[in-house]
UniProtKB/TrEMBL annotation:
GO molecular function, one term: hydrolase activity
Entry keyword DNA damage: yes
Stretches assigned to the Fe2OG dioxygenase domain: 97-198
Cofactors that this protein relies on: Fe(2+)
Keywords: Dioxygenase, DNA damage, DNA repair, Iron, Magnesium, Metal-binding, Oxidoreductase
Pfam hit, one: 2OG-FeII_Oxy_2
Family matches, as InterPro entries: AlkB-like, AlkB-like_sf, ALKBH3, Oxoglu/Fe-dep_dioxygenase_dom
Protein name, as recorded: Alpha-ketoglutarate-dependent dioxygenase AlkB
Species whose genome carries this gene: Hymenobacter lutimineralis
BP terms from Gene Ontology: DNA alkylation repair
């Protein structure tokens, strides 16, 4: 199976492996996690208002790996067997350890993730994020921070079931990423971003 390949994003280290998990394994894991994960729909503060996030989320990890973002404080739930197994596979493929995972469930094409960088201080100076996709294919968009990369062009990448995306180095400082809504009829998609939270809270 082809290994992680470096993508052509300037001043970034983004690697992609389209067939990280075999399709039968990706399909089985999608069904198991969709049904068993403790999904929640949090609200975040947006321009002073409480707005429900346009997706479902869940946070699992080591006990000390607490995480806060957009005014939310997330205490991790203990690892389950399938999540531990996937964590081991991801650590092996990337050569890096992870102590927590944020799961996102995009129920339809109307669920989305806005432009952001995963640059919270508790992720360290150069965050390492490994992201596994299951279910329907959605497109991730990347855009450069123009003050740093005035000549770089935006970049789109389809993330099919079983794919692995690794972002590290300066990526979270030089680029932002998003999962836009789509008008196409798409089924549910589940994404897991493995992270290493450094104890600060
Ligand atoms: O759903 C995805 O592929 C992206 C998720 C993401 O960017 C995040 O959780 O920070
Ligand atoms: Fe992200």
């Amino acid at each position: 199976m082809a290994a992680l390949t470096l993508l052509p994003l300037a001043q970034a280290e983004v690697y992609f492996q389209p067939a990280f998990l075999p399709i039968p394994e990706a399909t089985a894991l999608f069904s198991e996690l969709t049904a068993t994960v403790a999904w929640r729909q949090d609200s975040i503060q947006l321009f002073g208002k409480q707005v429900p996030q346009p997706r479902l989320t869940a946070w699992y990890g080591d006990e000390h790996a607490a995480y806060s973002y957009s005014g939310l404080y997330l205490r991790p739930q203990p690892w389950t067997e399938p999540l531990q197994r996937l964590r081991r596979q991801v650590a092996e493929a990337t050569g890096q350890p992870f102590n927590s995972v944020l799961l996102n469930l995009y129920r339809t094409g109307q669920d989305s993730m806005g432009w952001h960088a995963d640059d919270e201080p508790e992720l360290g100076p150069n965050p390492v994020i490994a992201s596994v996709s299951l279910g329907a294919t959605r497109r991730m968009r990347f855009r450069p921070r123009l003050s740093l990369l005035p000549d770089a062009a935006p970049f789109g990448l389809d993330l099919p079931a079983g794919s692995l995306l690794l972002m590290q180095g300066a990526t979270q400082h030089t680029w932002q990423h998003a999962i836009p809504k789509t008008a196409r009829a798409v089924g549910p998609r589940l994404n897991l971003t493995f992270r290493s939270v450094q104890g600060r809270l």
